[in-house]
Amino acid sequence: xxxxxxxxxxxxxxxxxxxxxxxxxxxxxxxxxxxxxxxxxxxxxxxxxxxxxxxxxxxxxxxxxxxxxxxxxxxxxxxxxxxxxxxxxxxxxxxxxxxxxxxxxxxxxxxxxxxxxxxxxxxxxxxxxxxxxxxxxxxxxxxxxxxxxxxxxxxxxxxxxxxxxxxxxxxxxxxxxxxxxxxxxxxxxxxxxxxxxxxxxxxxxxxxxxxxxxxxxxxxxxxxxxxxxxxxxxxxxxxxxxxxxxxxxxxxxxxxxxxxxxxxxxxxxxxxxxxxxxxxxxxxxxxxxxxxxxxxxxxxxxxxxxxxxx
Length: 310
Prior knowledge:
By secondary structure, the protein is an alpha+beta fold. The protein has helices spanning about 10-25, 65-75, 80-90, 110-130, 195-205, 220-225, 235-240, 255-265, 285-290, 295-300, and strands spanning about 35, 45-50, 55-60, 95-105, 130-140, 155-165, 185, 305-310.
């Protein structure tokens, strides 16, 4: 457990595993019916359903506490990139091409301007990912939702669907990984949308409650730098898969950092891996790590440290 952030990664993993085990028991409800769940992706980034000759993938996630950065800075139009990246890139990690996304926006009170900025950003991100926003809901939950400042507070989650192209015999799941395979890292440009409970605690400890207003450099505040939106990788991944590069495994570096997410793919083959030249961590990431006195081993489990996909 990380005492600074109050986040217990191991407990979270156990709870997620338990929740999935209960969900897995429901797969029998669709056996021998359209939409049956295909076996072999236990613990993967997405799951696959069979509809006659069409294989559909599904993934759900949310932005998490990065939302507070938008509340602090008043910049809301970048969060759509985080929302799309968390689900569309999970689909791409198993070879699916994202097609559509549905989102749920839980708010305490409605603010038309903020909702408009959020949806403008979602529109832009959907264009980058090549998917359509086909559904959604705005739910007013009053005091059940809280946050920073006096304007609208919210939680934003989505579910994305995608299809497995005919050229892929099965989803990319890591089972074809062999000794001698090379791991290639795709650089990230920030913390993406994970590990912000600890980031916010470190910033408060070092700069006080208004840390988001402190200048990081001559042009940007810490609030603006940490809000850097997630790169969306799915279009690149799907393009690589069309080039017959025969990718054996794809890892989306989200919660759990490099060790936990890489292990999800490696376990399918039984191999381990050595990463000797990862993409370097960005300067502001290293500064946050130093200010929080976070050891390297812990940092690479909490954050992507400059590596968005493997």
